[in-house]
Write the structure tokens for this entry.
Amino acid sequence: MAKRIEVGVIGLGKFGFALAETLKEIGHDVIGIDGNMEKVRRAKTLLNQVYQADGTDRIALEQIGLKDIENVVVSIGNSMGNSILVAMNLLELGVPNLWVKAISEEHERVLKRLGVDNVIFPEQFMARQLAHRLAFPGLLDYLPLGSGVMLSEAEVDRWDGKTIRELALPSMHSIQIVALKKAGSPSFSFVPQATEKLSKGDILVLLGDTKNLSDLES
């Protein structure tokens, strides 16, 4: 796993709580903050540190110690005004990496002008994920890296008996093999060796451009 990080999550609604839960499961440290006591109680069963506090209160955020946390995510519900105030407070505290959930393009423009580099639209992201999963049944994930990058599964058929080196996917198709699950095996091995011989029914996890992957036959 990559180095352990500490993340502050302000707003423990559906998105914020799911984000905090996932980060905790991965093995990172999460500080949760919300003004709603019920949400704070729920998060206390999961996180080590949870505070009931008003994110628009700069002094409260400073006392919690957010100025010393490298990554902070603002996931305020539908209040654009509160979200902007929280973002301003965190920028003034000097948080290095600030991520803010936006609810509209206008909201995004204001956040960008304030100096927030990372603006999140969860609904749009999930809509794109679903669209690509529907269009590409073997798709594991759609990575928004600027040019339609996908992570996709391919079951070995006509490549039976060939080695990974013989496929020449990086040079011929600009596709990388990131994992392999042998037929009958319950788990994947990551970054398989070039000398690995493939068999019918093996599963490859491929990383590449949308068009290149959709044109590929295994």
In short: The CA atoms of residues 142 and 162 lie 28 Å apart. The chain is about 35% helix and 25% strand.
